[in-house]
Structure formats: structure tokens, C-alpha cells
Write a structure and sequence with these properties.
Blueprint lengths: L16 H11 L21 H5 L2 E2 L7 E2 L8 E4 H6 L5 H6 L4 E5 L4 E5 L13 E4 L2 E2 L21 E8 L3 H4 L6 E7 L7 E9 L3 E11 L5 E11 L4 E3 L4 E3 L5 E12 L2 E12 L16 E18 L2 E19 L4 E19 L5 E21 L4 E8 L2 E14 L2 E12 L3 E15 L2 E12 L3 H5 L17 E14 L3 E20 L5 E21 L5 E13 L12 E10 L4 E10 L2 E2 L4 E2 L2 E14 L2 E8 L7 E3 L10 E3 L4 E9 L1
């Protein structure tokens, strides 16, 4: 019996295209309505320029600092932009950022960073945080960014992306970048809100959110969300048939946090069953029993206290759980693939400004993987293929100094050592020289290294008696060295631009091969490099209009044969316009271009997608409404597939035009 690898639409929405085009045309003439009343700050995405250049991020150095002083070309998308552009998932947010692109295999969403997104990789080379807590699971180390993300997008205050290596501050997975999703505070969502959504393919979502600040100063935030979608019918050219009602998805998410004085407690739960119409892993096409189920849960307690005016202590204790169940139908049996991950740990950090000109951060971290269970078996007849259960541990120590050489010149240097029970230790530095002669203008020179530890799936999936797969406990970490120059420039009082030039060298890439015994095995070996340039710009107008755009060029290649990497577009371009139309109305329009990409068997062409959202504040008292059209012009496009040993498809078609209407009622 063939074993199942755990990795892994064009939707034919019958919506009248003339309606979609009319919606687009109606929104833009209003741009010239100068007599329209200006919206308030709550009704606009408008950010005054002086706030833009002093915007703070907390993820680059693990404490709040001006974005101009962060040792990275940091990017922030806040809740206003999430609402304005109708972003439904974290993947939608990330897709708008410079140098990032998203692929989808109808089971999960995958992020590409500066030309790297290997088909079959589970988002292991990006660290994903929620309020600073690591949410990559401890089996695959996967960062879940689509509907499978832990927190509902309506609970998100902002998303920070820190490109480049972050291992000097965070350790594992901070290879190509760090994503920190910061949830809303009680003051940002006072009272209760009920949300109802309906969309294409019989998609429905409902939710309840609550925030309150109690008389004793404690703050409470909570939310619950449920979503169901029938999905689309999906034609497979490889099978010459249509899969009906086999793209179904549903999820339930719970999130809550309570803070009081120096303490904060936070927890979340998510369960998502998902079918897949493409019959991956050589399963029976059109069989409705195919299903994958992801379940996440976490609890995190944190402490933040100023011990003195120059010494700050913070830390946290956490517990995380992840379960995966895959049901794979074959002609003669059902194959069950199951994983259970449990972990617990803690971290302690001390921030000092006691020495003139220095901001010193030091910390220690320990994590114990209580369980890393993987199992695969057939139901009928009952055949056990393998079961693996590991319980490794790791610890790390790090130090960082932000040294103010003079008022316009900073040196940010960090170093971290991590030790794993499985393979030993690794040390990674980051150094940035930051020059900012005036607000909005600056130059950053950045060098860093990072690593990605082999995960339990790569090391232990399969044993000596398992057909098709075998583990490799001798794997070493992947390693990267990066060099980047960032130039920030303001033009007048309303234009701001950023230029980044970068080069990455990667070695010890973990790659799946067919070994001499015809079984799949993960090995170290490949080397790769990428060089590129990113240009971003933002323009603000009085009255609330905002235009932002970015364009990226990256050339990612295998060092052995200088071949262009698979699923690696050389060109990415994004353009977004936020536009007040009339009192309480606002339009958010996007155009996103992804260049052609190489697949294992050929190429997929480039494509441009247009999205449009119309927002209406206070349609009735306490009621907000929005209407969104995604892939407005019904563009046909495809993503490269993971054409492993058991895949038929080289490419997978993606969604056509879809619509969504959303209502929020506050009381």
C-alpha cells in the first residue's frame, strides 16, 4: 500500500461580470467629489505623515522601536487596511506586502519570500507569532496562514513582517522572516460586535467579539467564529472528470485574553476539517471521504514589569497542542495519517538602559516537546505501517545591544546560541548600521545569519519497515547568510519610499529524494542563492485617500546548476488605493501581479488579479457593511503543485471571481 505524504480553482462563479465592472466604475468617479465631507480618523485608513515616519514595530528587536530604527525593512498592515481592502485571512494580508506571494494546494496556503517557496514545504522557513507567542506547530514546524490560522482576522490589530534572518532574536524558523500578528486590545473593541458574512460557493461565516475594561483596570477580550463553505466544483484534466462538492471547508475559532497590571493570559483554539477536490497523493478522485483535520490550541501567560526606570523584566510560560488527522481513500482501503504534538516552555527577558547610549536586551528560553507522535495505518484490512513518538528539548540564550553612536547613527547587534538535544548547538548573529539624518530619511546596512532545524516529520516519518518512506534522524539544520541595504526617503510631506537590495546564500537545504531502496528520504545537500531589489512607495492626501504600491525583482537559483528555482516568480507587483467616496463610504481597490514561475515539468504564466471592496460605516446605528469582489475580472491562473512521487498534477487551478458581503453590528 502506498504511504501518504502529509504535505500537499479555479471557481466558476456564475456572477454577471457586468455587475462587477459596474461596481468598479461607480467607485472611481467619486474620487473627484471634492465637496464630499472629510471622514473622521475612525472612518479612514488615513495616517498623518508625521505618524508614518515614527510608526513603531515591536517584532524586529523584541521591544517597541521606531520603524526607521528597526534592523530590517519592516512592513506593517493594520486593522484599518484589513477592513478597507476586505482581507479575509492572514494570507490575504501577507499577499499585499513587498516580496511576498501566496500559493494554495486546496488544503493549505503557502508563503513565498523573496523567491523562495518550494512546493511541498510547509511554511517552515518563516516564524509565525501571535502577540509574540510562537504558533508554528512542533511536528511540521508549519506556519498556518490561511483559514487554518489560529486567530480570526477580525481580532487582529496589525500584522508586522520583519524580512530577513531573525534567529539572533528568536531562534528556529526565523529563516526568511518573522510574522507577528498582534491582536486587538479591549480599548480597540469596546462592547460587543456580531459579524455575519455570506459569499460565493455557499460560504457563510458568523462571529461574536467582546472587549471591556473593568473598573479595577483589568482588560478582557474574547471572540468566537464559525465558518462553512461548500467550495466549488473542480475539473481535473488529469482525470478527465469533475469533482462535485469536494472542496468543502469549515472551521471554529476561539480566542480570549485577560490582562491585569503586569500580567496577561491568552489562549486560543481552532479546528478545521478540509476536503480536497484534486485527489492528492494518488487517492481516488471524486471520493468524498478524503479529509484533513487540523486542530490547534494554546495557552500563554506573560509578565511585564518595570523594575526601575532603567530596567524592565518580561517573560512568559506557554503550552501548545497540535493534532492532524488525514483520511485518504484508496481503491481497497482507507489510509489514516495521524500526528499529535504537545509542547511547553518559557522565556525570560531583561531590558536595560542603564548604560548611556545603550539599550541592552538579554534572555533565555527553554522548550520541551512533550510529544511528537506520528502514525500511519490502513483501516481495512488493519495494517500498521509505523508509529513514532519523540520528546526532544531545546534551550537558547541571546543578547542584543542597540548602541546610539550619535543622534543620527545607531548600531544594532545581536547574538543567539541555541542547543537541541537532537543535533547540538548553533550560533547566529545579526548586525545593522542605521543612519537617519532626518525624519523619513535613512540608510540601513544589515548582515545576519539564521538556521532552520529539521522537524519531526523530516527526521522520523517512516521506519525500517515502512514502505515508500523512511526517516532521517541524522539531518542537520539548514543555514542562511544575508546581506541587505535599505534606503528610506521622504519626498515632501506626503510621499514616502523604501528601496531594499538584498542577497541571500542558503546551504544544507533539506530536500526529499528517492533513495536507492526506492523510498522517499529527506537529506541535506542543496545550496541556493537569491538576489533582488524591492521598491515600495506610499502617498497620502488630505481627506483620507491613500495610494501605496511595491514592485520586486528576485532571482533565486540552485547553486549546483544555476537553475531557476521552482515556484519562484522573478517579478511581483502590488498597487492599492484607499478612496473616500462620500460621507461614510470608502473604496479599497487592489491590483496584484505575480510573474511566471517554473514548475517541475514546465512553467505557469504570470497573472494579474484585481480586488475591490466597498465599505459603508454606520449604514444604520451601530451597523457597518462591506461588499467585496475578489479576482474581479475572473482571471484564470494556476499555482505550481507538489509533484512528488505520487502526484499527477503539475499545476493546480485557483479560484475565479468570488463575492462576499459582510455586516458588523456593534452594541
Amino acid at each position: 500500500m502506498t504511504q501518504i505524504s502529509i504535505a500537499a480553482q479555479k471557481a466558476k462563479s456564475r456572477v454577471c461580470e457586468s455587475f462587477a465592472i459596474c461596481v468598479l466604475l461607480v467607485s472611481f468617479p467619486a474620487a473627484q467629489a471634492a465637496e464630499s465631507p472629510a471622514l473622521t480618523a475612525e472612518q479612514l485608513i488615513d495616517i498623518p505623515f508625521e505618524q508614518l515616519v515614527t510608526l513603531e514595530v515591536s517584532s524586529a528587536s523584541r521591544y517597541p522601536q521606531k520603524i526607521s530604527e528597526a534592523p530590517s525593512a519592516a512592513v506593517v498592515v493594520d486593522s484599518d487596511e484589513i477592513r478597507t481592502y476586505g482581507y479575509r485571512t492572514l494570507a490575504d494580508v501577507l499577499r499585499s506586502m513587498p516580496g511576498l506571494y501566496i500559493s494554495d494546494d486546496h488544503s493549505w496556503s503557502y508563503i513565498g519570500v523573496r523567491g523562495f517557496s518550494r512546493p511541498g514545504d510547509y511554511n517552515t522557513r518563516v516564524l509565525l507569532l501571535v502577540d509574540g507567542y510562537r504558533v508554528n506547530d512542533n511536528i511540521f514546524n508549519q506556519a498556518y496562514i490561511g483559514n487554518e490560522f489560529l486567530v480570526d482576522i477580525d481580532m487582529v490589530e496589525r500584522v508586522e513582517f520583519i524580512p530577513g534572518p531573525g534567529a539572533s532574536a528568536y531562534g528556529d524558523n526565523a529563516f526568511f522572516g518573522v510574522i507577528n500578528v498582534i491582536t486587538k486590545s479591549a480599548s480597540a473593541m469596546l462592547g460587543s460586535t456580531i459579524t455575519a458574512e455570506a459569499g460565493s460557493h455557499n460560504s457563510y461565516k458568523g462571529g461574536y467579539r467582546y472587549g471591556n475594561r473593568l473598573d479595577n483596570g483589568a482588560e478582557v477580550v474574547m471572540g468566537i467564529t464559525h465558518y462553512e463553505s461548500e467550495g466549488r466544483d473542480w475539473f481535473s484534466p488529469e482525470h478527465g472528470a469533475v469533482a462535485h462538492d469536494l472542496d468543502t471547508e469549515r472551521y471554529t475559532k476561539l480566542f480570549a485574553k485577560v490582562s491585569y497590571q503586569e500580567w496577561a493570559f491568552e489562549g486560543g483554539y481552532m479546528k478545521r476539517p478540509k476536503s480536497n477536490p484534486s485527489a492528492p497523493y494518488s487517492t481516488v478522485f471524486g471520493d468524498e471521504r478524503f479529509e484533513t483535520v487540523d486542530t490547534h490550541a494554546f495557552a500563554n501567560a506573560s509578565y511585564n514589569s518595570a523594575l526601575s526606570d532603567k530596567l524592565h523584566l518580561s517573560g512568559n510560560l506557554y503550552y501548545g497542542a497540535y493534532d492532524y488527522d488525514g483520511i485518504y481513500p484508496y481503491a481497497t482501503t482507507l489510509n489514516i495519517d495521524r500526528s499529535k504534538g504537545r509542547r511547553a516552555g518559557g522565556e525570560l527577558r531583561l531590558l536595560s538602559t542603564a548604560f548611556a547610549g545603550h539599550k541592552l536586551l538579554g534572555g533565555i528560553e527553554y522548550q520541551k516537546d512533550l510529544r511528537q507522535m506520528q502514525r500511519n495505518y490502513d483501516l481495512t484490512p488493519r495494517t500498521e505501517y509505523f508509529k513514532s513518538d519523540q520528546a526532544p528539548h531545546k534551550h537558547g540564550i541571546f543578547v542584543q545591544d542597540e548602541y546610539t553612536i550619535r543622534d543620527d547613527l545607531l548600531l544594532n547587534a545581536g547574538l543567539r546560541y541555541d542547543h537541541y538535544s537532537a543535533f547540538g548547538g548553533t550560533t547566529n548573529p545579526r548586525v545593522a548600521l542605521i543612519y537617519h539624518p532626518s525624519p523619513g530619511n535613512g540608510l540601513k546596512l544589515i548582515y545576519g545569519s539564521a538556521y532552520r532545524a529539521p522537524n519531526a516529520y523530516e527526521m522520523f516519518y517512516g521506519d525500517a519497515d515502512t514502505p515508500d518512506y523512511k526517516g532521517n534522524p541524522e539531518l542537520d539544520p539548514e543555514r542562511i547568510k544575508t546581506y541587505e541595504l535599505v534606503l528610506e526617503k521622504s519626498f515632501g510631506a506626503s510621499w514616502h519610499g523604501t528601496l531594499s537590495v538584498f542577497h541571500y546564500d542558503v546551504k544544507n537545504l533539506i530536500t526529499q529524494i528517492v533513495d536507492t531502496d526506492d523510498r522517499l528520504l529527506f537529506v541535506n545537500g542543496e545550496k541556493a542563492h537569491t538576489s533582488g531589489i524591492e521598491l515600495s512607495a506610499e502617498k497620502y492626501w488630505q481627506g483620507g485617500a491613500k495610494l501605496k504600491g511595491n514592485i520586486s525583482y528576485q532571482d533565486a537559483r540552485d547553486k549546483a546548476d544555476n537553475r531557476w528555482l521552482t515556484n519562484s516568480p522573478r517579478i511581483l507587483g502590488k498597487l492599492a488605493l484607499a478612496l473616500p467616496i462620500a460621507h461614510f463610504w470608502q473604496a479599497g481597490a487592489e491590483l496584484q501581479y505575480t510573474g511566471k514561475r517554473r514548475t517541475n515539468a514546465g512553467e505557469v504564466g504570470g497573472y494579474a488579479l484585481a480586488n475591490l471592496t466597498l465599505n459603508r460605516r454606520s449604514l444604520l446605528k451601530g451597523l457597518d457593511a462591506s461588499l467585496s469582489a475578489y479576482n474581479l475580472f475572473d482571471k484564470e491562473y494556476e499555482d505550481p503543485a507538489d509533484t512528488g512521487a505520487f502526484e499527477l498534477q503539475d499545476v493546480l487551478k485557483q479560484d475565479g471571481r468570488t463575492l462576499r458581503i459582510k455586516l458588523d453590528y456593534r452594541f
